[in-house]
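LanC lantibiotic synthetase component C-like 2 (Bacterial)
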Amino acid sequence: MGENMSKRLRLISGDSDMEERAFPNPYPDWDQGGLGLNPEADSDYGKEPLDAEGKISPRFQTKVQSKIKDLLQQMEEGLKTADPHDFSTYTGWTGVALLYLQLHRVSQEAAHLQRALDYVKRAMRTLNGRKVTFLCGDAGPLAVCAVVHHKLNNTADSQDCLSRLLQLQRSVVGPDAEMPDELLYGRAGYLYALLYVNKEIGANAVDDSVIAKVVTAILESGKNMSAEQKKSDRCPLLYEWHKKQYIGAAHGLAGIYYMLMQVLLLIQTLHKKTR
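Predicted C-alpha cells:
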C-alpha cells in the first residue's frame, strides 16, 4: 500500500515520467492575435483545421468527411460478426442507428437516415421486455425508432413506437414495480428515453403528466431510502444499487440527479402542488 501511495504522490507532484503516459503534442500554442493577419505567409496555411476567419477550412472538412467514410466502412465490416441479439443503445444495433441518425443531422444525407432505419428495425425484432431504459432496455430502440420514423414522415409507425414506449411506464411506476432508480437499468434511464423523444419530435410528444409520474416515482424512492437510512437531513434523496450507495453516473447519484435536473421546472411545479 505504501508503494502504491508513493506512486500516486509522484503522479500528483509531476515527478513521474509523464511523457510515457501522454501523446506528444507537436503543435504550437494557440495564438489568437495572429489569426488572419497574414495567413498566406505561412507555408502550412490550408493544412490547418481553421481558416483565416476562424471557421473550419474546406480542405480540413474534406479530410474529416473522408475519414468518416473510412471509419464507417470499418464499422460495417466489423458488424458482420456482431451479436445479432444485442438490440441495446449501449452496445448494440440501436447505438449504430443512433450514430447514423447523428450523421444525418449534420450532413442531411438521406442515405444516413435510411441506414438508421435499417439498424433500428433490426433492433426492434429482438426486444425482450426485460429492461426499460434508454441505454440497455426496450425504451432505447422504441424511442430511436419513433424519432427515425418521424423524420421519414412515417407518422403511423412513429406513433406505434411511441405508444409502445409509453406502455412500459406501468413497470416503472406501478405500485409493485421492483425497479432501481439509476440511469443504466432504472427509472432515470426510462426518463431519459421520454425526454429524448420530446427533444427530437416535439415538446408535446410525451405529455408532462406521464413524465411527472416517473419523476414522482424517482423522488419518492429517494425520500424513502433516505428516511430508512436516517439521512434525510444530510441527503434528502438517497439511492442504492444492489444494496450499495453509488455516486457515479451509471448506477449512482450523479446520473439520477442529472436526469432530475433536466426536469427542474416540472419538479418545482410538483413541489408546489404538494405543499
